[in-house]
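Narrative summary of target 7.
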Amino acid sequence: MKNYNWSTFFELHGIAPFWNGLTFTEFNQQRIEFCRTHFIPKNKKVGISEKDPKNFLFKLFSLWENDCTPVLLPFSATQSERLQFFKTAPYHYLWEDQFYHLSDLEFKAPREEVLILFSSGSSGSPKGISLSAENLYASAQGSLEFYQEYLNPTTKWEMNLPLHHIGGLMIPLRALIAGHQLTTGIGTVTSMVPTQLIRALKEKVTDSLTKYQLILLGGAGIPVSLLKQAYQLGLKISPTYGLTETTAQVCAALPSDCALNAGGPLPHQEIRVVDGIIQVKSSTISAGQYRDGKFKQHCMDEGFFSTKDLGLFSNSGLDILGRNDGQFISGGENISPTEIENFVLTHPEIIQAVVVPKTHSEFGNCPVLYYQTRNQQPLVCNDLKTFCSKGLSPYKVPKKFIHGLLQFGLKPSRQKLIEAATGL
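Modeled conformation, tokenized:
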């Protein structure tokens, strides 16, 4: 079966509260009314660009009801990034305030595909991750089963992560399946990336944080010092690890464990480390990905998917050591140095560019640009920042601009530049 009938969950939970005081039935009725003003095609790929989370879910469930494949787009994406997304995984329509017809072409896709999300690739171009209904359902069920002692009929999930990210999307799907509540306000369960928790602790809102029954923490490397501070304050933190390709979580620790790593596999997940690389086997693994408009299945090893993340198993669980392909994470967002470098090199005066991560107290890492100009003279930093802002999302714009490259042999040493950036 390609798609689950998600509408059955609205019928199943009926008059129970679901969204900011609305019952499941009332929410679904509002969804139907919302969609009556739009022509929704059948069996097409449809891009969703929507800032309002409620309207986002109206669109998502309505497209699934019409056997369409939603393609989730970041609302803040620039025009050039949107074009790149379309070239990566083309779609027939774009649904913003209205439907925009983009193409009549037939696109080859996996038979079970019901959703496409984008993730940064190591080459600098995005990759479109193809997910099935089984992936989504299995991921939600695994999480609900793992956290069952922290959940109850009055559980209220906070909608505080972007819905075009798999971590944000799984929040309403878990709530829908379990019959829990969703809120855009304060809930009993929340999900955070480390940057959000660091900010909250800086703002000294510890009393508010201690009221949560559960705090899922992931989406980026988690400093051990942050976990220790959170546990000392009595916060119910669950460090977690997953990818878009694995439909979010595959590994986590319960708050009672007070773990300083990603813990162990969730129910129905198998995890191993081969030659230092984390590999996952599960029904949550996506079928494959889109690049340059073409779909390609994942290469599997005995049914295991290679994550390209470096890891190490210890008695206490899985330690995440970083990426094996040059990517790094800043404030929960994947950063591809190649993507930034390629854009910077479109500047008429720049002939070399290297982007490296620098440790940041709030974002975990931030991008730093080393560059060389044709006339060997530095550019005005504010001018260069403005230039980058025209073609890159805000989180991709380098936080520091350093003129000059440290040459080691025939080309700059990225590792040496990383080491140099630590002293900035």
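The chain has twelve helices and 29 strands.
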